[in-house]
Amino acid sequence: MIKIVNLVKSFNGQVVLDGINLELPTGKITVVIGKSGVGKSVLLKHIVGLLHPDSGQILVDGQDIAYLRGASLRAFKLRLAVLFQGGALFDSLSVYENIAFPLREKTRLPEREIAQRVRERLTQMNLAPEVETKFPDELSGGMKKRVALARAMIQEPEIMFFDEPVTGLDPPMTNTVFHLITKTHQASGYTALMVSHDIPEVFSVAHQVAMLHQGRIIAAGTPEEIQSHSDPMVQSFIRGEVDFLEA
Amino acid sequence: MVKIFRHLGQRTLNMIQEAGGMVIFLLEGLGLAFAPPFRPRRLLQEIYKIGGKSTLIILLTAAFTGMVLALQGYYTLRKYGSEGALGAAVALSLIREMGPVLTGIMVSARAGSAVTAEIGIMRITEQLDALDTMAVNPVQYVVMPKLLAGLLAVPLLTAIFDVVGILGGYLVGVVLLGVSSGSYFASMKQSVVALDINGGIVKSLVFGLTIILVACYKGYYTEHGAEGVSKATNQTVVLSAVLVLAWDYILTSFFM
Fold first, then answer.
1. Would you state the pLDDT for residue B216?
2. CA-CA distances (angstroms) from residue B20 to B13, B23, B197, B235?
3. DSSP assignment, residue A160?
4. Of the spans A139-143, A150-154, B61-65, which averages the highest pLDDT?
5. Partner residue facing A77 (CB), from B121, B126, B133
6. Is the pLDDT reported for residue B256 higher than 80?
7. Do A48 and B136 touch (CB under 8 A)?
8. Over the stretch A59-71, which tens digit does the pLDDT of each residue have?
9. Residue B172 contacts residue B67 (beta carbons within 8 Å)
10. Inter-chain CB proximity B126 and A48 less than 8 Å
11. Residue B247 host element (H or E)
12. What is the rounded distance in angstroms from the CA atom of residue B69 to the CA atom of residue B146?
């Protein structure tokens, strides 16, 4: 169980997260929705240890990860994997080397075993074997996302983080990526946090949805509960109404 | 008036903060060289990228520098009937000053800018964050091999610069202008002492570390997308060239 308690973060005096309280149930996919620039990725980066909160706690199995250092922080990071918004593939490495990278760095598996696992993941992501010799700049957006997902999944994480996993993809590829996320979740049962503004697609993968607005979680519940939520801000976001303050 | 002083004060504070940040970054980077996991292949890759790929430009710069030194030196020395000392003049200028300084500036322009751009792009495309979330220390994986490569490659490039520069001087002084080959090398052997060579080595070590440190630091803390990478790359070339010249003055004053 991951529990976020009263998390506060400011940048240059501007409060981005203003007392976030949220629980991520074990083995479930929680999706945080909200407008662009509202702080969804900032929230995710706190939980994976890339940012430190001004105050508040991020409890993973009762342990506050904001205070982890050295070996204990490394042990926590070995349990997680992240699918970054742009894929974050290493552009000096081939697709094969990118996917094999976590195994080469985190384990002492023989190269033959690594090669077998890489090929299994490529097949799982519906990627042809020829792709493995290509470099990231030779791939389309959808292929990059699938390679990044393969790299994340090869780590067999207990906790999975998805930062805007379908941003910039066409509708068929969006559905493909969501389908692969559902498939990998069914196969390994990881706990997941996804930040996204892709409505209504996220409702198909989420077990729990929370809406972030003005630094706070203003609504949380099952996809059905969120879709019928009484808060006008939630309804306005779900219906994609024009934001007159920003328009 | 108060505004000007406030602005100057802020700039000074920022510079001190940046200098402090670089020292901490350097200590962290070098300290991680002694912590496992060790990745010798990464070090070899960086030596090739920083050193190997800079060899051609160093060869060209060195040859022309030696040739110009010989040309200038010959006409100056001839006024005093001392053309025989041309070898000494060329060798001392190269070994003490021109070799380390010009190698430093050329490495900064070619490899320093490339290092900043590479790390800067890794920062803005979240590749450094990806390493971190995979429990791989980005400073240890990306920065440390580059710092070590700078320390190893720049002194070697400087040695190549010195030798090629002396041969360039030979080509102009001996082959084209008719200075005796024997006196070119004899005067060199007589004048160049161990202190000159040691001074050159110390300078090249300091320059190598400074250039790659600035390049890595500017790349690692790049912000604001592509424009930020462009700005950081520009700052690397300017700052490392200025620091090479400043260090040169400080180190020369120690070795004189």
1. 97
2. 10, 5, 31, 17
3. E
4. B61-65
5. B133
6. no
7. no
8. 988 889 888 888 8
9. yes
10. no
11. helix B225-255
12. 33
Residue A17 contacts residue A43 (beta carbons within 8 Å): yes
CB contact under 8 A, B130 and A50: no
B130 near A CB under 8 A: yes
For residue B5, give both structure tokens: 């002083």
Please tell me the distance in Å from B140's CA to the nearest CA on chain A: 12
d(CA A95, CA A4): 35
- Give the pTM: 0.89
Q: What is the ipTM of this complex?
A: 0.91
Question: How does A58-75 read in b/e, with b if 16+ C-beta sit within 10 Å?
Answer: bebeeeebbebeeeeeee
Among B37, B122, B133, the residue with its CB nearest the CB of A82 is B133
Domain spans of chain B, in order of start: 2-255
How long a stretch of residues is chain A?
Answer: 247
User: Distance between CA atoms of A163 and A40, rounded to whole angstroms?
Assistant: 8
Interface test with B, best of A84, A135, A145, A154 (most B CBs within 10 A): A84
Average pLDDT of chain A is: 89
Q: What is the mean pLDDT of residues A107-131?
A: 91
Tokens of residue B152, six digits? 């190893």
For A111, the token pair is 């190269």
Structure tokens at A97: 């080397």
Integer angstrom CA distances of residue A168 from A140, A199, A245, B124: 11, 14, 25, 17
- Whole-angstrom Cα Rg for chain B: 21
Q: pLDDT tens digits, residue range A11-30?
A: 988 999 999 999 999 999 99
> In angstroms, what is the C-alpha Rg of chain A?
18
Write out the two tokens for A194. 């996804």
CA B133 to chain centre: 33
Mean pLDDT of chain B: 93
Q: Which residues of B101-118 are buried (b: 16+ CB within 10 A; e: fewer)?
A: bbbbbbbbbbbbbbbbbb
Right CATH for A2-79+157-239 from 3.40.50.300, 3.90.950.20, 3.90.180.10, 3.30.1050.10:
3.40.50.300
Q: CA-based angle B63:B118:B98, to the nearest 5?
A: 25
Task: Write the DSSP string, B30-94.
Answer: HHGGGSSSP-HHHHHHHHHHHTGGGHHHHHHHHHHHHHHHHHHHHHHHHHTT-GGGHHHHHHHII
Q: Quick one: tokens of A29?
A: 């996919």
